[in-house]
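Hello Y.,

Per our agreement to keep a running log of every chain we model this quarter, I'm adding this entry. I've kept the format consistent with earlier entries: sequence first, then predicted structure.
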Amino acid sequence: MFLLEVARLVIDVSMWLVISRLVLTLFVRSETGPFWQVVLFVTEPVYRVSRLLTAGRVPERWLGLVSFVWLGLVRAPIAWALRAAAS
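Predicted structure for the entry above:
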Protein backbone atom coordinates (compact mmCIF):
# COMPACT_ATOMS: atom_id res chain seq x y z
CA MET A 1 0.00 0.00 0.00
CA PHE A 2 2.86 2.36 0.80
CA LEU A 3 4.38 1.78 -2.65
CA LEU A 4 1.04 2.56 -4.31
CA GLU A 5 0.86 5.83 -2.40
CA VAL A 6 4.40 6.74 -3.43
CA ALA A 7 3.63 5.85 -7.06
CA ARG A 8 0.50 7.99 -6.99
CA LEU A 9 2.45 10.88 -5.48
CA VAL A 10 5.12 10.67 -8.20
CA ILE A 11 2.46 10.54 -10.91
CA ASP A 12 0.57 13.48 -9.38
CA VAL A 13 3.72 15.60 -9.23
CA SER A 14 4.53 14.64 -12.83
CA MET A 15 1.03 15.63 -13.94
CA TRP A 16 1.36 19.04 -12.27
CA LEU A 17 4.75 19.56 -13.87
CA VAL A 18 3.38 18.70 -17.31
CA ILE A 19 0.56 21.21 -16.74
CA SER A 20 3.10 23.84 -15.69
CA ARG A 21 5.12 23.18 -18.86
CA LEU A 22 1.97 23.53 -20.99
CA VAL A 23 1.03 26.82 -19.32
CA LEU A 24 4.56 28.21 -19.36
CA THR A 25 4.89 27.61 -23.10
CA LEU A 26 2.30 30.36 -23.51
CA PHE A 27 4.32 32.90 -21.53
CA VAL A 28 8.02 32.07 -21.89
CA ARG A 29 9.79 34.29 -24.37
CA SER A 30 13.36 33.25 -23.64
CA GLU A 31 14.06 29.53 -23.61
CA THR A 32 17.38 30.12 -21.84
CA GLY A 33 15.81 31.22 -18.55
CA PRO A 34 16.79 29.14 -15.51
CA PHE A 35 13.21 28.37 -14.39
CA TRP A 36 12.22 27.23 -17.87
CA GLN A 37 15.34 25.04 -18.09
CA VAL A 38 14.43 23.34 -14.79
CA VAL A 39 10.87 22.67 -15.99
CA LEU A 40 12.23 21.22 -19.25
CA PHE A 41 14.75 19.06 -17.40
CA VAL A 42 12.15 17.67 -14.98
CA THR A 43 9.41 17.00 -17.55
CA GLU A 44 11.60 15.64 -20.33
CA PRO A 45 11.55 12.02 -19.03
CA VAL A 46 7.74 12.04 -19.15
CA TYR A 47 7.80 13.50 -22.66
CA ARG A 48 10.40 10.93 -23.72
CA VAL A 49 8.16 8.05 -22.62
CA SER A 50 5.21 9.62 -24.45
CA ARG A 51 7.30 9.93 -27.60
CA LEU A 52 8.24 6.26 -27.27
CA LEU A 53 4.65 5.12 -26.70
CA THR A 54 3.30 7.12 -29.62
CA ALA A 55 6.22 6.13 -31.89
CA GLY A 56 6.78 9.76 -32.86
CA ARG A 57 3.35 10.14 -34.51
CA VAL A 58 2.21 12.95 -32.22
CA PRO A 59 3.45 16.46 -33.06
CA GLU A 60 5.59 18.12 -30.40
CA ARG A 61 2.98 20.77 -29.59
CA TRP A 62 0.43 18.07 -28.63
CA LEU A 63 2.88 15.94 -26.67
CA GLY A 64 2.11 17.67 -23.36
CA LEU A 65 -1.57 16.84 -23.60
CA VAL A 66 -0.77 13.26 -24.62
CA SER A 67 1.65 12.95 -21.70
CA PHE A 68 -1.01 14.22 -19.32
CA VAL A 69 -3.50 11.66 -20.64
CA TRP A 70 -0.97 8.81 -20.33
CA LEU A 71 -0.23 9.80 -16.74
CA GLY A 72 -3.95 9.93 -15.99
CA LEU A 73 -4.43 6.46 -17.45
CA VAL A 74 -1.62 5.13 -15.26
CA ARG A 75 -2.92 6.95 -12.19
CA ALA A 76 -6.52 5.71 -12.40
CA PRO A 77 -5.93 2.03 -11.48
CA ILE A 78 -3.58 3.07 -8.68
CA ALA A 79 -6.21 5.41 -7.25
CA TRP A 80 -8.86 2.69 -7.51
CA ALA A 81 -6.61 0.19 -5.75
CA LEU A 82 -5.91 2.65 -2.94
CA ARG A 83 -9.60 3.44 -2.59
CA ALA A 84 -10.46 -0.27 -2.45
CA ALA A 85 -7.75 -0.90 0.14
CA ALA A 86 -8.98 1.94 2.33
CA SER A 87 -12.53 0.62 2.54
